[in-house]
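Field: sequence (string)
Field: structure_tokens (string)

Example rows 1 and 2, in order.
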Amino acid sequence: MNKVLRGEVPSLILIFVFSLLFLSIGLDKVGEHWDEVTVASVGESYLGFIKNEDFSQSSWELNHEHPPVAKYIYGTARFLTKNIPILQDKSGYYPEGRDFLFARFFSVVMSSLTVLVLFMIGFQISKSRLVAGLVALLLFINPVFQSYARIVSLEVPLLLFGSLFVLYSLKYASKKSLKNYFAVVISFALLVGTRYNGLLLLPFFYILQLHYLSNNSNWTNLSNLKSLIMPVLSGVLLIIIWPYLWSSPVSGVLASADRGLEVHTREYFLGKLGNAPWFYYISYLLVKTPLTLLALFIFGIVGGFKKTKQVVVFALLLFLLPFAASFLPLKQDGLRYVNLYLIGFSVICAFGVIGVIGVIRSMGIKIVILASTFLLLIISLTNHFPNYLDYYNYFIPVVDIYSKRLFEIGGWGEGVLEAVKKLPKPQDGQTSKVYFAISPVHIIPNLPDGFIETGDFSQADFVLINTNYRWYDGLVSNSDLERFTVIKRITVGNFIELVSVYQKLPI
């Protein structure tokens, strides 16, 4: 930490503590999500392999489509949960081995660190506490960031390590110390070791170095060599920590990447079921980003080119590079595979705020505009809590998104636990049967006392059906539900339906 940034330690502590406390709210408000079991349980298996000194490629082929770093992290959380009773969930809703609440706290810690690193990036490029604070705040209140901040997912460590890579790339560009260099090497290894799309940030490092070279006469051949071999050293580090690559690094990486880029699901996009087109991610950006942030982003680009052109160009590069994934075969799950764009996006939005402040002379009007802007964003977050995966702005009417199947809704099982909790308590001594028309099936929670699951629709007293099931399975029709009445709907933002709870009508 440089001398200037040391003076910001109180601010850094405050940002981290605030983020940690806020993100810790509601960890138990949502049930299991799609990938949580894969990431956490596979990580636990990896740690078991290491403990048993099993480094065979056949064992490590388990979930080999993604590198292991995130799985090591969440696997540690699973190990601690199983061995420390106080960390275990006591609600009874989670099936045995599917309690991920403490693992989610790991996500909260990493997400809070990411907000902290974004503050440091903002300070590194501007030397302004205001800009740094805005960068961190605008990341924090972005629903796309909030979507993954509380759940077990590759996106959380990916964004953290991506932010660290950007920070130390900036530091190394300005000061060619071994400390900064090895920080770049390690952060890049962790980034790519989480998911391969981290490779898309590599051009940022080299463009920074070329910019430094064109503006400094102290560049040496050693500096050239170190920059060239940086990704090689990161690759060596990845091989060391991933036993799957030990027997054959090159073929192992190729097999892993080939599996990771395989298109294994189709989803609805703009009303059609099929493989996503190249403009898939850009479309999701336009409908999942609050309109206020989109306006600040545009203002930040236009205004930034007039006053801080160099910084905005680098931030725009950071924003655009992740969208190179638009030209890869695998495109799915909204903005999940391009979430690294949030780094550059937050920086540009911060300069958008500075630009808005700059054109207004009246301090009172500045305060009103800023307060109104952030109040609208906070209200939006509050209305969609805790299911930010299904946040959509009003760029397209949300009714059309649902009725015309324009964009994904409830694809990770959102709302199912909330629906189970809404089942009316049966009378003493009675047992009610529940039929789950839910997709994905593996996220279905345990039922409370007085309820049992049935696979026979004709015997059901209650039916739970989610939007994802309606769209992709549809084995329960409207005619099947004629003998039932809706008693509860789980919605997002009071508009988008996730799950409906039906009760059988009395005969």
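Row 2 begins here:
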Amino acid sequence: MELHLLIVSLMVCSTLGVPTRGRIFGGDPASPGQFPYIVALNNVDQFCDGSIINKNWILTAAHCLPDITSNTSVLVGTNIEHSGGTTYSISKAIAHEDYDSNTTQNDLGLIQIDGEFEFSDTVQAIEFGDPEENASCVAVGWGATEHVSFPEELQFVELRALSLEECQERVGDLDPFYLGPEQVCALGPEGKGVCFGDSGGPLVCGGKLAGVVSYSVSVLPAVTHNVRVIGGNTAQPGQFPFAVSIMMPSFGQNWCGGTIISKNSILTAAQCMNNLFPEDVVVVAGTVDLRTGGTVYNISQVTIHPTFNETNLIDDIAVVKVDGEFEISESVQIAEIGEVLDNDTCTVSGWGATENINAPASLMFANLRALSVEECDKLAEDGVFDVERGPGQVCGFGGRGNGVCYGDAGDSLTSKGKFVGIASYAVAQCAVGWPDIYTRVAYYKDWINTII
């Protein structure tokens, strides 16, 4: 059975946060006006949710706020993501002053809109409430009905609020994370719960806002788009001189990984740059520790593969050009693109988690094995890996305790000293023994050469 534990933040105390974005799956479509307090935060497409709490303020998750740009809009008054409703611009966004992205504490954010909401049957504020153990609750969001299928229709799913003791007992050692009195777990039955893409949405118990969706933990979770190296070793200076960090200055942490492929270009995952502007992020090269050293480069141009599919992550590749040129040295080098064959020994390197939610600033690496399509399918034959793949993708398998996890898509996969893949997504819970998916770089070599 697939148990899904939704971790939310209590309104009465504030909350937690982790980069694993929750999205409803196995839910039912909402009727117009059924949840008039729900809002969608959009950068072209929806990336987080929130709840209206008065005429000009929204409550959401703090880890959603770094994605906000000058073009982010707030959509209210509709249950269809790209139809109807009213759009508002954002004037202010405030994260809880004690929000900690590593420990997942205090994951609350407030957003103020320009002007005021026009209340109606489909736009209303919601009151705060305190959930009781075993209370029947509802999570709401624009969510997946399957692991990678995203309908535009608002979804809701019924869950049960757990005590912290029961939550910790069910999770056990599978997913170490902080649990405190300001948090609540909510459990959905098999096939129902939250997955990726819809953090910040409401958990409603007894008709009142009891929590903010922060992240999900599951025994067999859905595909996780953003990945981090897990169970790896710390890299030595100059060991991976082609590896760069794509950082969001407003966030102060690694956003994605990348690989130097020319004097002014890097390769990364398309998902990392989708809906971002070049000025939103910078490239850091020449260091294995993001707290010290390295050179920062501004970005001048981003080219995402024209057929990138953000639903199944096929063609998940982008070329990023920096202002000026990289200064080549022992710690900054250009990677040579190569082919990867079945059963090749590979190494993934990136600024990644050593556990499911801990993200150190040191460059990490882990050894993997490239799988054949048949072997990859066999390892995932239980149906967890019900995801379309294409010839431009390769499976990597590090066994239990090694692989990729959330937060660091775009990292380098190398084999025999050559750059062969880009970390795209983890099929399951961090390093529990399922394959991870990489973009096969050599497959796109002709396209890359037309840009650089």
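free_text_note (row 2): The first strand starts at residue 4 and ends at 10.
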